[in-house]
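Work Package 4 report. The design task specified in the project plan requires that, given a folded chain encoded as structure tokens, an amino acid be chosen for each position. We show below one input record used in the internal validation round.
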């Protein structure tokens, strides 16, 4: 029997039962991919994240939704950084080594939140909007853009974003891309919701990675490089964003909900 530690951490919130839950499984060495995918399916959270320490301040990191391995996940990176900082009080910076998006770093801010450095992934305008996107959203967006992760459906206001009802069977046809709906916020610079039936599930509670595209988009539209964003899912999550050159800095709080042990059969 193999026993592994597991932590469940709510990211982009300072309250349990809010934000987005990630299961964090620190490893001494990598498990087979099929085992990690089975653990993620068993956990049935947006993401289960695994990491292996490769140097004093560096960790190889991989993310799995219940359906598949994911190229880039922000909230589970925040959850991992929270756990690592909890166990390494004097570590000034964490470097996460990834397959798809290079090195991501995390630092702890004076207010206790954690700021992550992401590559800027600005969306670009679409000349032709896929019919599956228009049919998959109950309210027609005023414009649509796309980056390497998702289609960006732009709306007039927060009320429209909250009112959108997705047709997941239509949106799944857009895979491997997901769909983010977004608009200026009533009390925040911008708001969003994220649908990812092709890659993880129905609606993601809080999606840190997509803010690598949302932040530069809204920074250009609003004429400011420091923004506060709210993901208006049922659980909600607060993200502070800063756009600088080719990087997007996304910060948020996190709180631990659970600590336990996984028991799986030996190979």
């Amino acid at each position: 029997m193999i026993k592994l530690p597991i932590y469940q951490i709510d990211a982009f919130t300072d309250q349990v039962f809010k934000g987005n839950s990630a299961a964090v499984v620190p490893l001494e060495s990598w498990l087979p991919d099929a085992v990690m995918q089975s653990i993620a399916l068993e956990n049935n959270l947006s993401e289960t994240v695994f990491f292996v320490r490769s140097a004093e301040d560096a960790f190889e990191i991989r993310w799995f939704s219940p359906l598949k391995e994911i190229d880039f996940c922000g909230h589970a990176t925040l959850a991992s950084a929270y756990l690592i900082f909890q166990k390494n009080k004097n570590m000034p910076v964490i470097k996460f080594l990834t397959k798809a998006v290079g090195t991501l770093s995390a630092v702890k801010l004076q207010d206790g939140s954690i700021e992550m450095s992401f590559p800027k992934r600005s969306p670009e305008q679409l000349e032709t909007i896929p019919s599956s996107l228009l049919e998959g959203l109950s309210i027609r967006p005023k414009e649509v853009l796309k980056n390497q992760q998702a289609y960006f459906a732009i709306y007039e206001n927060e009320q429209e974003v909250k009112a959108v009802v997705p047709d997941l069977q239509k949106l799944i046809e857009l895979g491997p891309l997901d769909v983010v709906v977004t608009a200026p916020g009533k009390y925040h610079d911008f708001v969003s919701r994220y649908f990812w039936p092709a890659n993880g599930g129905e609606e993601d509670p809080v999606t840190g990675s997509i803010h690598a595209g949302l932040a530069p988009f809204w920074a250009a539209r609003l004429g400011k490089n420091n923004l506060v964003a709210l993901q208006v899912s049922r659980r909600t999550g607060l993200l502070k964003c800063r756009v600088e050159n080719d990087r997007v800095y996304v910060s948020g709080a996190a709180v631990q909900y659970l600590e336990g042990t996984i028991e799986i059969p030996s190979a």
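The longest strand covers residues 254-264. Validation will be extended to a larger panel in the next phase.
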